[in-house]
Known about the structure:
By secondary structure, the chain is α/β, with parallel strands linked by helices.
Amino acid sequence: MPGHELLGQEEKQEVLDVFDNGGILFRQGFEGLRNNCYKVRQFENAFASHMNVPYALAVSSGTAALRVALAALGIGQGDEVITQSFTFVATVEAIIESRAIPICADIDTTLNMDPEDLERRITPNTKAVIVVHMLGTPARLPEIVDICRKYNLLLIEDTAWGCGGFLNDKPLGTWGSIGTFSFDFAKTITTGEGGMLVFRDKETYMRAQAWHDHGHESNPTVPRWEDTRASSGFNYRMTELQGAVGVAQLRKLKEVVLAQRNNKFKIWNAICDLPGVTPRSVPSGSYETSDALVFFVDTKERARLCRENLINAGLATKILPEAYTWHFSGTWHHMSELVSSHGGDLTTAFDKSHSILARAVSIPVNVNMAREVPSKVRDAITKAFSL
Ligand SMILES: *Cc1c(COP(=O)(O)O)cnc(C)c1O
């Protein structure tokens, strides 16, 4: 639990830099007053080169990034967009907000989209797929990319949990048309609130750029108030203060991911020999961000017991088994669009996902981990099996 643990002098210095150069908190314009200080732009350029893509666009949140992605790809009224049953509500909210129809596919034991179930749910109205790399483990991207090609579907990666991860040496977020990232306070790197989109294609980038800024094309030949426009849009701009923090946090991304990977390995080593503990499936070629350690136990009751014992030992679980209300679409009865696109009842719509999630336990992994955490976890889990 990640970048916010390392917030410090570097972030402070980048923010001071904004104030020392005119205090222009807006990402564009005011050229004469800012001494060439453009933090959002600098963050975007550094992020794009980090991800090895030509274009990146910073926005106000990870949810906004998904909304802008759907707009830039022309997804709207009547289009079906398939995502997965285990994700944060934001993924489905962005689809609903685009006036498209949200469909969730089941997950498999990777806890990410099951490619077979994805293929089963494709209809002539399906336009796009949003795959999510939950808790930092890559989805089965090669199979999902093939299915998208076969049916001519656009692919968006919700990389909110996958920032700094790879599959087959290719950064997560760069496998489809657009990758989206979140920098909220619980994510791998943070700007308090914030998000990013990455693109391989210039036209898609240009559409996203305009749409996130009321349709402003940022035409260099005219001043902003005479700017040209081709479409309507909205306001999802990032501020210079967020951009400044992002510039410093991005420099720490590799360090955060490495520390999480080491610490997850230490916890896993302490429990992997316990009978009844089964690891999450991980696609071969994965470089996980290791934001959490996930494993399966034999029953739902045992998963609950693990949670209780971990909490009693002063440790925590992360999302699973307790908080799947916010992360499992089978419980989202408050989203009428989702309910109606799944036959009017979500309770039995994702039986396969439910049976997998109910037996999963997830332990948060910190950058700064106390030395005794692995053995405490071992004791707590051992106790859950001793009844
Ligand atoms: C955090 C998260 C988001 C939303 O990001 P915000 O920056 O909080 O708006 C979207 N999708 C997933 C999977 C997330 O975990």
